[in-house]
Amino acid sequence: VLMQAISLADKSGTNDISTLLPKDGPSSSDLASLDNILGRYLSPEIPPTAPLRQTSISAVKSAVTTFQTWAMRTPGLVGVLFGQQGKSKAWKGLRILVAPSFQAILEDHRTAEMCEQDQVRPVGVIQVGSAAANEASREIVRTQCQAFIDEKLKVSLCIYVHPHDPGSFAFKEFGGEEFVCVEPVWGHATMKGIANVCMVEHLFQSNREALYRQVCKVVLKEACKIYDTSPSGNTQKFPFEKVGIPGDGRCGWRAILAAQNLKGFLAIPRTATHDVRV
Questions:
Q1: By the 8 A CB rule, do 64 and 159 touch?
Q2: Helix (H) or strand (E) holding 246
């Protein structure tokens, strides 16, 4: 009965065997069982999805994640991935420079100095979006990636980070006329003492300089608040007093305490042996 139903179904193009069997045929439960088997025979085969090949250029996952965090906070940021060829001839992406545009990164004199000093070169780009970006966005990335390719670097990498889903990335490799989706390869940061993701304007700045810049930024912000709340055209005056600070190795902290509460600081008894610095 099953073989007859399959033969009739092939000719009629239907999967409903109840219309093909005689009325005094098998019961409804038998028909349901045969229908499942028939559907298995007649359903089109779905070819298995081929696994993506691994990318030829690795990237540091922590750097990509940090860029995604920055881009989610400040829309419009893009990055250029810089790397070098390892002993195994594989290319390793080691650092991401970030700016509002690719040109701002590649045309900055500090970028050229970094490439010469650290022996790295641009190997790809990173931006917010998806692999199915619009044609205008794809053309910009395609042009930029193609500029990196030469006899030594056969392909370049484009990393898309999701704007709202942390940890969601898409890797595409450019080595010809079209982008090809690839499986990411995560490497390790080997440039010790150097941030693996950095704003281009912060290149060659030490931690002390970065801290000084941040403190100045906060102080300036607070000063602007005071200025904005003062009457227009009037200069607000602040009391000023020159105070001696004991030079015992903690003079910096003592200066901050004195500025916060001058009367309380002056009320602290001092011995005559203290080296008081004004």
A1: yes
A2: strand 245-246
pTM of the predicted structure, to 2 decimals:
0.59
Condensed to tens digits (0 to 9), the pLDDT of residues 202-233 reads: 888 776 777 777 777 777 777 777 656 554 55
d(CA 152, CA 83): 13
Residue 64 binned pLDDT confidence (cut-offs 50, 70, 90): very high
- Backbone φ and ψ for 94, nearest 5 degrees, come out as -110, -30
Q: Please give the pLDDT value at position 49.
A: 64
- Find where tokens 């395609």 sit: 142
* CA–CA separation, 22 and 29 (whole Å): 15
3-state secondary structure of 16: coil
The answer to whether the CB of 55 falls within 8 A of the CB of 81 is no
Amino acid symbol at 217: K
Tell me the Cα Rg of the chain.
Answer: 34
The structure tokens listed for 226 are 């005071």
CB-CB contact of 80 with 97 (8 Å): yes
Is 111:85 a contact under the CB 8 Å cutoff?
Answer: no
What letter would DSSP give residue 88? T
Q: How far apart are CA 19 and CA 164, in angstroms?
A: 52
Question: By the 8 A CB rule, do 124 and 157 touch?
Answer: yes
Read off the pLDDT of residues 83-95 as tens digits, 9 standing for 90 and up: 998 888 889 999 9
Contact between 97 and 83 under an 8 Å Cβ cutoff? The reply is no
pLDDT > 90? residue 144? no
Tell me, what amino acid is at 129? G
